């Protein structure tokens, strides 16, 4: 294509997945172009991280920066609607006690840290650049992006990584996106000042409060505000007969404990937001010249805060895969098969648990985990993102 610039890898989307893989590939000396349609800092929902993220921040070299913006988090509180019989579980109760903490973050801040870090690591990280077309051939792809000033820029890339999040740029283009019809929900959320938090070391822990039509998150942030969101099943939202804000507060009233914690709290900017929450995945994560990571590949219910971890882990696994595709094409077929399996394992394990935790007949067993047959240990390991123990986790649950 005329006027096109050459690169080894073009990454679509500068969220956690795209910035992570760009950093790792640029560090290897590869010519990486990272295109983000928005400008950082930009709002994004998804503020609770897992202990498994910490090691990834370490390897990227951003742990101290994340610690500066984060609220320390050591576990989870499960709260039934009436607030009785709450249970607290600490990450340290999992198989690997070193995976004992994480942070709650404002995503505008975290995502900017990761994106700027990719730039500092040698990637050409460009904001205000929306990828509009990708045309593959035997040796790579022609990519066109629309720039913020209305102009177009073209690249010739040997390999393309789709990290476009829930825009799912490539799986829509390739027709590989499959919605999970069994999981259809909408999230309503807002930020509050002066919400009552847990005392002491538990102040930063996430609370998950369930009710008949879905579940709530309560995520304390470092600046004193608290993110509160309701993931509601589709039929409940369809019945909405009043403005979003009123409906949100009516929904909060269905959880007296949560309602109580928000007495006297102030809704920041008087704003309630809504976002659709379909679970989906692509039938394939890899092609000869491309790879899908993070939400561009799969999205599951955010109940256990696994999204950013899976996105960044996809960046780490993906970087190795791209190296194989570029340097050892004879090994690509086997690498693709292995990565396809690995990419599906994380969403599958979390979905297994989410299905049970949202099923009213067996929910209590999972929301009040006891360590019979090491079930609690297994669950806490999964919730800490200790996927290395995945097989052990499944074994313990099959004994259940
Ligand atoms: P994103 O973070 O979405 O980044 C994709 C980027 O690509 C965006 O910046 C976008 O602007 C850019 N982009 C899109 N299209 C283009 C294009 N054509 N050209 C250029 N750029 C493009 N996860 C957690 O870990 N913890 C939580 O508590 C949590 N809560 C959640 C609550 C809700 C209601 C939802 C919906 C999700 C939640 N998640 C949570 C999930 C989490 O937000 C995502 O899994 C995570 O952001 C995925 O990262 P990503 O890099 O794949 O995608």
Structure report:
This protein has 400 residues and is of the alpha+beta class. The protein starts with a strand and ends with a helix. The longest helix has 26 residues. The radius of gyration is 21 Å and the shape is globular. The protein is built from 13 helices and 20 strands. β9 and β10 form a beta hairpin. It binds flavin-adenine dinucleotide. The site of flavin-adenine dinucleotide has 39 residues, from α1, β2, β8 and α9.
Number of helical segments with 4 or more residues: 13
Low-pLDDT residue intervals, each spanning 5 or more residues: none
Helix content class: 25-40%
CATH class wording of the largest domain: Alpha Beta
Chain-wise SSE layout:
Elements: E1 4-12, H1 16-27, E2 32-36, H2 51-60, H3 63-69, E3 71-73, E4 75-79, E5 87-90, E6 102-104, H4 107-120, E7 124-127, E8 129-137, E9 140-147, E10 152-162, H5 169-174, E11 177-179, E12 185-193, E13 206-211, E14 214-220, E15 225-233, H6 234-238, H7 244-252, H8 256-261, E16 266-267, E17 273-276, E18 280-282, E19 290-292, E20 298-299, H9 307-327, H10 332-357, H11 363-367, H12 375-383, H13 390-398
Parallel strand pairs: 1-2, 1-10, 2-7, 4-13, 10-19
Antiparallel strand pairs: 3-6, 4-5, 8-9, 9-10, 11-18, 12-15, 12-16, 12-17, 13-14, 14-15, 18-20
Helix pairs in contact: 1-4, 1-9, 9-10, 12-13
Bound molecules: flavin-adenine dinucleotide.
The site of flavin-adenine dinucleotide has 39 residues, from helix 1, strand 2, strand 8 and helix 9.
């Amino acid at each position: 294509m005329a006027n096109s610039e050459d690169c080894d890898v073009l990454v679509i989307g500068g969220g956690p997945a795209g910035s992570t893989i760009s950093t790792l590939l640029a560090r290897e000396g590869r010519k990486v172009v990272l295109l983000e349609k928005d400008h950082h800092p930009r709002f994004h929902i998804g503020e609770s991280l897992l202990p498994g993220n910490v090691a990834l921040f370490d390897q990227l070299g951003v742990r101290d920066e994340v610690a500066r913006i984060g609220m320390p988090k050591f576990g989870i509180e499960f709260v039934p609607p009436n607030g009785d019989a709450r249970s607290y579980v600490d990450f340290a109760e999992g198989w690997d006690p070193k995976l004992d903490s994480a942070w709650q973050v404002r995503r505008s801040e975290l995502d900017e840290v990761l994106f700027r870090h990719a730039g500092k690591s040698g990637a050409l990280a460009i904001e205000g650049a929306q990828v509009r077309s990708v045309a593959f051939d035997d040796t790579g792809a022609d990519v066109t992006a629309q720039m913020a000033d209305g102009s177009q820029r073209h690249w010739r890339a040997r390999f393309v990584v789709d990290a476009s999040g829930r825009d799912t740029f490539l799986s829509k283009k390739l027709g590989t996106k499959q919605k999970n019809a069994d999981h259809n929900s909408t999230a309503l959320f807002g930020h509050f000042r002066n919400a009552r938090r847990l005392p002491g070391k538990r102040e930063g822990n996430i609370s998950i409060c369930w009710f008949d039509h879905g579940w709530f998150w309560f995520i304390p942030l470092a600046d004193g505000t608290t993110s509160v969101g309701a993931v509601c099943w589709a039929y409940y939202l369809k019945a909405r007969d009043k403005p979003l804000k009123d409906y949100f507060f009516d929904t909060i009233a269905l959880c007296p404990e949560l309602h109580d914690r928000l007495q006297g709290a102030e809704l920041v900017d008087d704003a309630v937001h809504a976002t659709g929450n379909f679970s989906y995945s692509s039938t394939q994560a890899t092609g000869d010249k491309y790879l899908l990571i993070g939400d561009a590949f799969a999205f599951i219910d955010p109940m256990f805060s696994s999204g950013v971890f899976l996105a960044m882990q996809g960046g780490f696994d993906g970087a190795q895969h791209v190296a194989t595709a570029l340097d050892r094409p004879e090994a690509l077929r086997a690498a693709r098969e292995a990565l396809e399996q690995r990419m599906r394992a994380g969403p599958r394990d979390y979905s297994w648990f989410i299905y049970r935790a949202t099923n009213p007949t067996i929910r209590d067993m999972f929301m009040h985990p006891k360590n019979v047959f090491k079930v609690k240990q297994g669950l806490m390991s999964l919730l800490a993102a200790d996927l290395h123990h995945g097989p052990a986790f499944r074994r313990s649950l099959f004994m259940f």
